[in-house]
Write a structure and sequence with these properties.
With 216 residues, the protein is an alpha/beta fold. It is 37% helix and 20% strand. Helix 2 links the parallel strand 2 and strand 3. The radius of gyration is 16 Å and the shape is globular. It binds D-xylitol-5-phosphate and zinc ion (ZN). D-xylitol-5-phosphate (DX5) binds next to strand 2, strand 8 and helix 7.
């Protein structure tokens, strides 16, 4: 069963309550919450108080994607604000295995699910040593920083590599894909082995319930 995680980066904030109600009527199970610090990526988004507001407004699982230079600091900030999953970029820790494992352990010690992700230019091999340590592996199918970009088909190979590695090791990690997901690309990434689909502009650009349904 594919999990759909609408990215609230693309939510129409002038219609917040209406769109949250539509999401609750839809088959969406998670909310994907893009945190950007204006340094790791050239955009600035939400702080912890906005996540607290979402936790008050929705029962959906809060999947927080940290696109920040300091995921060590901000993982605590957003866990305190109610994050149920924290996904961070290996590049933010210079792909240093000691720092990456330490942050994975720190997030798990707070009884929060942990995900690891890479930018499109980072080889998928970087993720392989961690597949039995984490709850999720996120493949970015756009350059992180903005919604509404075109899907990068080269991400399909990365998904297939992860699918094979997870199946071979019997690891429980989910594969999440984020960026340019629509009715067509959803089929491609599911066929490649993805479990969780993040979509922003496709879901919030029209009929939310129908758009979510079309991704399942
Ligand atoms: C991009 C974010 C994505 C983005 C997806 O940096 O991580 O979650 O909001 O937006 P769409 O679905 O419009 O590509
Ligand atoms: Zn994201």
């Amino acid at each position: 069963m594919t999990i759909i995680a609408p990215s609230v980066l693309s939510l129409d904030y002038s219609r917040f309550s209406e769109q949250i109600a539509d999401l609750h009527r839809s088959k969406a199970q998670w909310l994907h919450f893009d945190v950007m610090d204006g340094h790791f990526v050239p955009n600035l988004t939400f702080g912890p108080d906005i996540l607290k507001a979402f936790r008050k407004a929705s029962h959906l699982f809060m999947d927080v994607h940290l696109m920040v230079d300091d995921p060590d600091y901000f993982s605590d900030v957003f866990i305190d604000a109610g994050a149920q999953m924290i996904t961070f970029h290996t590049e933010a820790l210079n792909d240093d295995p000691v720092r990456i494992s330490a942050l994975i352990d720190k997030i798990k010690a707070r009884h929060v699910k942990v995900g690891l992700t890479i930018k499109p230019k980072t080889p998928v091999d970087i993720l392989l040593p961690y597949i039995t340590e984490v709850d999720m592996l996120l493949i970015m199918s756009v350059e992180p920083g903005f919604g509404g970009q075109a899907f990068m088909p080269q991400s399909l190979d990365k998904i297939a590599v992860l699918r094979k590695a997870i199946d071979q090791t019997g690891a429980h990690a989910l594969i999440q894909v984020d960026g340019g997901i629509n009715g067509h690309t959803a089929t491609l990434v599911k066929d490649a082995g993805a479990d969780v689909l993040v979509a922003g502009s496709y879901i919030f650009s029209g009929n939310i319930v129908a758009a979510v349904e079309s991704l399942c």
